[in-house]
Design a protein that fits this description.
The chain has 236 residues and is α/β, with parallel strands linked by helices. It contains 7 helices and 6 strands, in the order E-H-E-H-E-H-E-H-H-E-E-H-H. The chain has 2 domains: 179 residues, Rossmann fold, CATH 3.40.50.300; 35 residues. It has a 6-stranded mixed β-sheet with strand order 2-3-4-1-5-6, sandwiched between helices.
Length: 236
């Protein structure tokens, strides 16, 4: 590889207790690439190949299931979301506690509320019922909250990045991707940053960023009020 395209190595670990990893991070930060890498290593190890790692210890898996990408199926009259749900249904019906399941941004093909609800319910089922090794990529905050519900079984990681200091309040958030997997949850997805890289005009981006900040403020207020209401009820 050229110097500008150096490979970034990462360490990932699951065990018989911590069997689920939720991965977050910026768009174009390397999440899907990391998941593909793990799937390839798992497949290569099971057919007796050397794997691209300094060391690797994998259990004997009875299945490796991956739901990734966004494509429709015109011949079968299936929309993008229907394809996504059909493939997820097959995984849920086939996976066992000895399987590796990789789901990349499940639920993105429909409304935010429905998508987040499906993602949460699916991951909860994988954790509590199937109990397989699970790698789950998401941008939904509600999915990340499963870490608090099942802290002994779920670990959270994100793709590292560095934010550029902004001189102008109207300037666009700019993230430099490091492609390192680090512990914790990413605060944002920085989709507007990717839109800037794609050449969307700055006027549109500034307007989008302002709307994003307004939505974030509303969400924070709703969460605060919900938490305050819950505390008041519990004290009755």
């Amino acid at each position: 590889m050229g110097e500008e395209h150096q490979f970034v190595a990462n360490d990932l670990k699951l065990n018989n207790v911590e069997r689920c990893m939720i991965m977050t991070g910026p768009n174009m930060g390397g999440k899907s690439t990391c998941m593909r890498q793990i799937a390839h290593i798992a497949i290569m190890s099971h057919i007796g190949c050397y794997v691209p790692a300094d060391s690797a210890v994998l259990p004997l898996l009875d299945g490796i299931y991956v739901r990734m990408g966004a494509d429709d199926d015109l011949a079968q009259r299936k929309s993008t979301f229907m394809v996504e749900m059909s493939e997820t249904s097959e995984i849920l019906a086939s996976a066992t506690s000895n399987s590796l399941v990789i789901l990349d941004e499940l639920g993105r093909g429909t409304s935010t509320n429905d998508g987040a609800a499906i993602a949460c319910a699916t991951l909860d089922y994988l954790i509590t019922e199937i109990k397989c090794f699970t790698l789950f990529v998401t941008h939904y905050p509600s999915v990340m909250e499963l870490k608090n519900i099942w802290p002994e079984h779920v670990i959270t990681v994100h793709m590292a990045y560095i934010l550029r200091d902004k001189d102008d309040k109207e300037d666009i958030d700019t993230a430099t991707f490091l492609y390192n997997v680090v512990p914790g949850i990413s605060e944002k997805s920085y989709g507007i940053n990717v839109a800037a890289l794609a050449g969307i005009s700055k006027d549109i981006l500034c307007d989008a960023q302002q709307k994003s900040r307004e939505l974030e403020t509303k969400i924070k207020i709703c969460r605060f009020l919900r938490k305050k209401t819950s505390t008041s009820v519990s004290n009755l």
